[in-house]
């Protein structure tokens, strides 16, 4: 962390996007150290009440130190941000595969740098994100990572000034960002009768109902994570088409690192004819398809890359470390934290028997359950970036996977990376439990209302012309 970015560097860092916890900047200057990089900086909530569990001066709480006790690098860290990076390096990278994970490096930044960046980017941030969070100017470093929406030049070492394609030291590229969410239906024995629907309907589909009710999305998405994770080309293609139609915060496209579809920093409008037309024209610079077929070809390319890389099989395995569901893990959490179990407290003695095995487990077993639950939570919330570049005859072959697009007679190299592999805090276990109940109850309520409406419509019968 020897270099420090100061106020005069701020103008070279421009808004790339953000999630709930971090804001991401991309570099548009000419320093070799930063070309092709993005920087992730921490945000802080505007409301003091939301600071709980978000800004800890110590890296891990005593209970977290217990659950991560086998990851020595993690528990020896005294800073939360460093712990986050060590978590990616020592927990997620070995699980997901080192070629797919870039833990990044910390870089020092001054308060003035962050203040200046905040001023520069505020107009591009979604208003609802600005309302709830700001750049955390108390933090004195950012996380420098490769920009996974770009493809380094074929020579890899060649870093040039801005070239005719608008890329710095990069080949023309098209990339897709997918937030796949949970790709399986839980089958845990601890799922109660009241929430048994979780075994049949995906969490994503049910969560859509709650998001709709809260006005977080304007239209439900038809995307089904089970399709994306299925391994079948037809179903993956369907998933990609559904994501394209309703990108929300699950799908984005970038051309040479600039967003061309989806929402910067949050959700996006449903893809209408106008958006699709503009996109089609933009893609024409990279996909040599007949008029009107560039987007379709891109969706095929993405489908093939998802299938060929097999990367989602690996992600699914890690998601499935959650094998008891939050309805099981919550009991282990109360045991670790030596609290009276708030779930069993509300149940009759007979009902609570179902969870007796969890409450009589050894401390090590409880620690394993919560640890695996939190690792799976990271895997259910991360995103995947797949970056493509048209293959040139002179490109050296071995480094990347290639897909041949039959209809355009073009070969594309592609690379895959996971982003946003953040450590989930143990203090969120209560929240996870409550949100799970809320999602199920809202979905059931909406389904009931819809059934009622359909029955009314049937009773009224078809309209008869007078
Ligand atoms: O709980 P979920 O499934 O809604 O996931 C949250 C995400 O919502 P989503 O449904 O993907 O729109 C949420 O994303 P948005 O803010 O909605 O874009 C965050 O990723 C959140 O993680 P964290 O608070 O930054 O650690 C995510 O929280 P975690 O559950 O991963 O902790
Ligand atoms: N290494 C990267 N290369 C290119 N773009 C990136 C990279 N890391 C992040 N981004 C962009 O920045 C956005 C926000 O980053 P990220 O998802 O890490 O934020 P977050 O606050 O941790 O998200 P969440 O709400 O899921 O917790 C991403 O959606 C992506 O578009
Ligand atoms: Zn209990």
From TrEMBL:
Task: List keywords of the entry alphabetically.
Answer: ATP-binding, Kinase, Nucleotide-binding, Transferase
Q: Which GO terms describe its biological process?
A: inositol phosphate biosynthetic process
Q: Name one GO molecular function term.
A: ATP binding
Which InterPro entries does this chain map to?
Ins_P5_2-kin, IP5_2-K_N_lobe
Q: Name one GO cellular component term.
A: nucleus
Q: Which reaction does it catalyse?
A: 1D-myo-inositol 1,3,4,5,6-pentakisphosphate + ATP = 1D-myo-inositol hexakisphosphate + ADP + H(+)
* Gene3D superfamilies tied to this protein: Inositol-pentakisphosphate 2-kinase, N-lobe
In the UniProt entry, what is the domain comment? Answer: The EXKPK motif is conserved in inositol-pentakisphosphate 2-kinases of both family 1 and 2.
Q: Cite the PANTHER family for this sequence.
A: INOSITOL POLYPHOSPHATE KINASE 1 (PTHR14456), INOSITOL-PENTAKISPHOSPHATE 2-KINASE (PTHR14456:SF6)
Q: What does this protein do?
A: Phosphorylates Ins(1,3,4,5,6)P5 at position 2 to form Ins(1,2,3,4,5,6)P6 (InsP6 or phytate).
Q: What is the name attached to this protein's record?
A: Inositol-pentakisphosphate 2-kinase
* Organism per entry: Cicer arietinum
Question: What is the gene called?
Answer: LOC101494480
């Amino acid at each position: 962390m020897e270099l420090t970015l100061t106020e005069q560097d701020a103008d070279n860092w421009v808004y790339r996007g953000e999630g709930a916890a971090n804001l991401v900047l991309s570099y548009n200057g000419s320093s070799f150290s930063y070309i092709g990089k993005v920087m992730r900086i921490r945000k802080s909530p505007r409301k003091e009440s939301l600071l709980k569990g978000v800004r800890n001066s110590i890296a891990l709480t005593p209970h977290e130190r217990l659950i991560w006790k086998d990851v020595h690098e993690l528990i020896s860290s005294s800073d939360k941000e460093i712990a986050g990076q060590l978590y990616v390096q020592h927990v997620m990278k070995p699980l997901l595969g080192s070629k797919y994970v870039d833990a990044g490096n910390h870089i020092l930044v001054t308060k003035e740098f962050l203040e200046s960046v905040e001023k520069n980017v505020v107009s591009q941030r979604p208003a609802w994100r600005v309302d709830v969070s700001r750049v955390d100017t108390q933090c004195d470093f950012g996380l420098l990572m490769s920009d996974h929406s770009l493809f380094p030049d074929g020579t890899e070492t060649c870093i040039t000034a801005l070239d005719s394609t608008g890329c710095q030291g990069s080949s023309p590229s098209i990339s897709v960002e997918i937030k796949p969410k949970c790709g399986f239906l839980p089958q845990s024995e601890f799922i109660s009768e009241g929430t048994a629907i979780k075994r049949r309907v995906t969490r994503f589909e049910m969560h859509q109902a709650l998001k709709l009710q809260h006005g977080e999305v304007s239209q439900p998405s038809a995307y089904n994570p089970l399709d994306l994770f299925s391994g079948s080309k037809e179903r993956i293609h369907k998933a990609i088409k559904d994501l394209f139609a309703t990108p929300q915060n699950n799908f984005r496209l970038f051309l040479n690192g600039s967003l061309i579809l989806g929402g910067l920093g949050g959700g996006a409008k449903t893809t209408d004819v106008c958006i699709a037309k503009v996109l089609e024209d933009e893609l024409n610079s990279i996909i040599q398809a007949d008029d009107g077929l560039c987007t379709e070809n891109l969706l095929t390319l993405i489908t093939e890359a998802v299938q060929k890389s097999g990367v989602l099989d690996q992600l699914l395995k890690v998601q499935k470390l959650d094998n008891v569901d939050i309805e099981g893990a919550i009991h282990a959490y109360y045991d670790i934290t030596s609290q009276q179990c708030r779930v069993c407290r509300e149940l009759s003695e007979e009902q609570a028997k179902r969870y007796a095995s969890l409450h009589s487990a050894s401390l090590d077993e409880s620690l394993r359950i919560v640890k695996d639950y939190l690792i799976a939570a990271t895997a259910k919330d991360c995103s995947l970036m797949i970056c493509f570049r048209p293959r040139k005859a002179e490109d050296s072959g071995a480094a990347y996977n290639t897909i041949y697009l039959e209809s355009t007679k073009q070969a594309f190299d592609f690379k895959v990376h996971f982003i946003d592999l953040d450590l989930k805090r143990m203090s969120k276990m209560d929240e996870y439990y409550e949100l799970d109940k809320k999602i199920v109850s809202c979905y059931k309520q909406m389904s009931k209302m819809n059934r009622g409406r359909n029955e009314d419509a049937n009773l009224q019968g078809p309209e008869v012309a007078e």
